[in-house]
């Protein structure tokens, strides 16, 4: 399944990476929007309960990989290249975007160091 969607994921990551990072809010919102588009594209796959059960062990590994990839994109906008902050923000955006939360509701809870 992962190899099936890998090319689209790489394109999503490249698109995010190419965005200007001067305006942190805009950049984080672009990440949120990109994740929503990507998850919508594969909505049927991500919502398949049988697939979730069959691949539950791989889910944890893939989730950590996605968080790490997003954190590497967020790190340049973190003060002092704070790796923990980048991972924290990546986890928040990844988890809550996939749960359908709006960017505004996620953004208001992010640490002030990233805003």
Could you please describe the fold and organization of this structure?
The chain is mainly α and 115 residues long. The chain has seven helices and no strands. Helix 1 runs antiparallel to helix 2, helix 2 crosses helix 6 and helix 5 crosses helix 6. The longest helix is centred in the middle third of the chain and has 19 residues. The model has no long low-confidence stretch (mean pLDDT 90).
Roughly what is the average pLDDT, rounded to an integer?
Answer: 90
Estimate what percentage of residues fall within beta strands. under 5%
Class per helix and strand makeup: mainly alpha
Specify the number of helices. 7
Helix residue percentage: over 70%
Following the backbone from N to C, one meets helices and strands in this order, namely: HHHHHHH
Distance between the termini: 35 Å
Question: Could you provide a short overview of the structure?
Answer:
The chain is an all-alpha fold and 115 residues long. It has helices at 2-17, 24-41, 43-46, 49-54, 56-74, 83-98, 103-107.
């Amino acid at each position: 399944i992962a190899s099936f969607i890998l090319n689209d994921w790489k394109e999503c990551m490249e698109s995010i990476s190419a965005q200007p990072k001067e305006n942190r809010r805009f950049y984080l919102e672009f990440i949120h929007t990109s994740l929503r588009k990507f998850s919508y594209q594969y909505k049927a796959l991500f919502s398949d309960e049988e697939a979730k059960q069959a691949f539950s062990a791989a889910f944890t590994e893939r989730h950590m990989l996605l968080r790490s990839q997003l954190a590497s994109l967020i790190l340049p906008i973190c003060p002092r290249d704070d790796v923990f902050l980048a991972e924290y923000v990546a986890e928040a955006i990844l988890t809550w975007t996939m749960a359908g939360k709006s960017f505004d509701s996620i953004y208001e809870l992010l640490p002030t160091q990233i805003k």
